[in-house]
Amino acid sequence: MANDREILREIWEGKIPVHFQLSSDETDVEPEDFFLLIPRLSYFPLVTEKVRRHFLRVVSNELQDGEMWMDSNGTPLKWHYPIGVLFDLLVGSDACLPWRITVHFSKFPEEVLFRCPNKDIVEAHFMSSLKEADVLKHRGQVVSAMQKKDHNQLWLGLVNDKFDQFWAVNRRLMEPIPDQDGFKHIPVRCYAEDGTYQQKLVAPGTESGQKRTLQDLLEDFSTPVRKAVSARSHGICVPESTPLQWLSEHLSYPDNFLHLCLVYA
């Protein structure tokens, strides 16, 4: 378990250096760019308040109340995707660091992005995903048995980037079903190159008791015309022989989903 905890902490401490620049459409004054080291496991609205304040100093008065949104090389960034997932989808390689992101306060792309006026929206999205994951893993029994203070501790652990605070509660969600070696199903979202994702019911084992691996999952998400050949998560190309139960316990994001960016051949 000591080694397991080290893996969990290393995943938790994953950070991405980001170079924020204001869109040239937003101001006649060229402001200084802003650099920030942000957690892979978080969401952009939770970590970009400093970015917003920095650029609002030079944005015109009519844009002061505009909702901030961002793009990476022209692709709007979906705030409800974890930051690490967006990086793996849109950049993928540490050779491209720091990640260059353009900040906007106008022309919000409503056909692509959901609005996010405050952090309460992020919390509602996070808790909804967490409950969905627990339904897949434990038929919802773990989250429903928690008290409001437990939900708050999970949320505040994520917001404040506190590993021990978060995992003191989250460890309950990582316990297997009683009398079984794993979860009922593995909460997983598999992303294609265009940023869309699929979900399927994925069991951690076969009816004969064998552990299913990433290779089995890749076959599940392959089609006659497109074969899934590998998966990336947390900047890692995941070995195909890794058991799905182990992946779910160690590489899940705080919402308890495995977020896998698939490569197709």
TrEMBL record:
Domain Autophagy protein ATG5 UblA: 11-105
Keyword Protein transport applies: no
Keyword Membrane: yes
GO molecular function: Atg8-family ligase activity
Gene Ontology annotations of biological process type: apoptotic process; autophagosome assembly; autophagy of mitochondrion; cellular response to nitrogen starvation; immune system process; negative regulation of programmed cell death; piecemeal microautophagy of the nucleus
Domain Autophagy protein ATG5 UblB, chain residue ranges per copy: 185-262
Localization per Swiss-Prot or TrEMBL: Cytoplasm; Preautophagosomal structure membrane
Alphabetically ordered keywords of this record: Acetylation, Apoptosis, Autophagy, Cytoplasm, Immunity, Isopeptide bond, Membrane, Ubl conjugation
Gene Ontology cellular component list: Atg12-Atg5-Atg16 complex; autophagosome; mitochondria-associated endoplasmic reticulum membrane contact site; phagophore; phagophore assembly site membrane
Record domain Autophagy protein ATG5 alpha-helical bundle region: where: 120-175
Pfam family, one: ATG5_UblA
Top-level taxon: Eukaryota
Membrane topology listed for this record: Peripheral membrane protein
Role according to the record: Involved in autophagic vesicle formation. May play an important role in the apoptotic process, possibly within the modified cytoskeleton. Its expression is a relatively late event in the apoptotic process, occurring downstream of caspase activity. Plays a crucial role in IFN-gamma-induced autophagic cell death by interacting with FADD.
Family to which this protein belongs: Belongs to the ATG5 family.
Quaternary structure (record): Forms a conjugate with ATG12. Part of the minor complex composed of 4 sets of ATG12-ATG5 and ATG16L1 (400 kDa); this complex interacts with ATG3 leading to disruption of ATG7 interaction and promotion of ATG8-like proteins lipidation. Forms an 800-kDa complex composed of ATG12-ATG5 and ATG16L2. The ATG12-ATG5 conjugate interacts with RAB33A; this interaction is bridged by ATG16L1 and promotes ATG12-ATG5-ATG16L1 complex recruitment to phagophores. Interacts with TECPR1; the interaction is direct and does not take place when ATG16L1 is associated with the ATG5-ATG12 conjugate.
Protein name from the UniProt record: Autophagy protein 5
Taxonomic source organism: Culex pipiens
Organism taxonomic ancestry: Eukaryota, Metazoa, Ecdysozoa, Arthropoda, Hexapoda
